[in-house]
Design brief:
This protein is an alpha/beta fold. About 40% of the residues lie in helices and about 15% in strands. It has helices spanning about 15-25, 45-50, 65-75, 90-95, 95-115, 150-170, 190-205, 225-235, 255-265, 295-300, 305-325; strands at about 5-10, 30-35, 55-60, 80, 120-130, 175-180, 180-185, 210-215, 220, 225, 245, 250-255, 275. The chain has a seven-stranded parallel β-sheet, with helices on both faces. Bound molecules: NADPH dihydro-nicotinamide-adenine-dinucleotide phosphate and guanosine-5'-diphosphate (GDP). The site of guanosine-5'-diphosphate (GDP) has 19 residues, from helix 4 and helix 7.
Length: about 325
């Protein structure tokens, strides 16, 4: 009998790669899709991977407990991956209440659905390095104190502690992956790596003349989403649920990442880059650098893809998209 997995956020970057990964492992994959008036757009990432016909879709919303109860009833999952969220930090200051409800309380709704309908299902929570925010240690691991710097970070921290609490209160097999930034050709266009690779591709093709960015001194520990979804799965294969940092252990400034992207297409970043004060955030996470020793020692997981290879893959994908006029 194939194992069943239910993924919230299946239409997002990680959901698409995780669905592909689990299908390759022989799972029956169910994905939560929220209703939208734009029919046929939601599954564009799954189509990009060629797996859109291989998954079951369940109509539900993280803010609607009854729809999640139904999703768990329909899918009878052995494993639930809660990847759905309002995931963009900058928007979380424009929509703080929605972010709290979807990213924070939404996780409680998923935990409740499991507790009520299928308490033996294993649960994965998509926690975030944004919970470290104003960092309290130079290398952040599972024991580093949290200090979120945005409504998004605060909502993720609430969801993280609810996951720990349901594990300790109800004995759920609930694990939390504290993932550092991870990117890919399927990253949302508003995030800085993809904004850069998309602009570099357009500039190279003569379709654009400028790249506007905010704080390019910020530093992130960037890995590849394809590598990171394997860590999610590994967490749920352990006998004991637990929390794990997932990171590369290398930090790079936005400025250096921009240079890597322009250099790949033989252009000089200085000629095209404009700093726009409007793009600075009300509070910034200056630097993140993860220590994934526990994931390496317990899960046997480590990041495989160097930043340079990932940026090249993303630029190539954006060049292909813009060359074919797919946008
Ligand atoms: P995306 O923004 O690409 O995907 C978010 C997903 O959540 C989409 O499928 C979206 O659906 C869905 N969603 C949003 N609101 C709701 C709602 N109300 N009900 C149901 N579904 C909803 O995120 P990523 O794939 O990059 O990230 C996956 C998870 O990991 C997120 O929780 C994110 O916060 C977290 N994370 C990500 C990191 C990263 O670097 N990528 C780092 C650490 C944590 P739709 O397609 O309809 O918008
Ligand atoms: P985050 O780490 O989840 O906030 O991921 P982002 O990719 O959105 O941002 C990473 C860093 O890049 C943050 O410190 C941003 O302030 C910085 N940054 C600088 N310019 C931009 C920009 O134009 N867009 C985005 N998204 N981030 C930018």
């Amino acid at each position: 009998m194939a194992r069943h997995a239910l993924i919230t956020g299946i239409t997002g970057q990680d959901g698409a790669y995780l669905a592909q990964n689990l299908l390759e492992k022989g799972y029956e994959v169910y994905g939560v899709v929220r209703r939208s008036s734009h029919f046929g757009i939601a599954d564009h990432r799954l189509r990009w991977l060629g797996i859109e016909k291989n998954v079951h879709y369940v109509d539900a919303n993280l803010t609607d407990l009854s729809s999640l109860l139904r999703a768990v009833e329909i899918s009878r999952p052995d494993e639930v991956y809660n990847l759905g969220a309002q995931s963009y930090v900058a928007s979380s200051w424009q929509q703080p209440i929605l972010t709290s409800q979807v990213t924070g309380v939404g996780t409680t709704n998923v935990l409740e659905s499991i507790r009520i309908v299928k308490p033996d299902a294993r649960f994965y929570q998509a926690s975030s390095s944004e919970m470290f925010g104003l960092i309290q240690e130079s290398h952040q691991n599972e024991r580093t104190p949290f200090y979120p710097r945005s409504p998004y970070g605060a909502a993720k921290l609430f969801a993280h502690w609810m996951t720990v609490n349901y594990r300790e209160s109800f004995n759920l097999h609930a694990s939390s992956g504290i993932l550092f930034n991870h990117e890919s050709p399927l990253r949302g266009i508003e995030f800085v790596t993809r904004k850069v690779t998309d602009s570099v591709a357009q500039i190279k093709l003569g379709k654009k003349t400028e790249l506007r960015l905010g704080n390019i001194d910020a530093k992130r520990d960037w890995g590849h989403a394809r590598d990171y979804v394997e860590a999610m799965w590994l967490m749920l294969q352990q006998d004991r649920p637990d929390d794990y940092v997932v990171a590369t252990g290398r930090t790079t400034s936005v400025r250096d990442m921009v240079e890597i992207a322009f250099h790949y297409v033989n252009l000089d970043a200085e000629e095209f880059l404009t700093i726009d004060p409007e793009l600075f955030r009300p509070a910034e996470v200056d630097i993140l650098l993860g220590d994934a020793t526990k994931a390496r020692e317990t899960l046997g997981w480590s990041a495989k893809t160097p930043l340079e290879d990932m940026i090249r893959e993303m630029v190539d994908a954006d060049l292909a998209r813009h060359s074919s006029n797919a946008g």
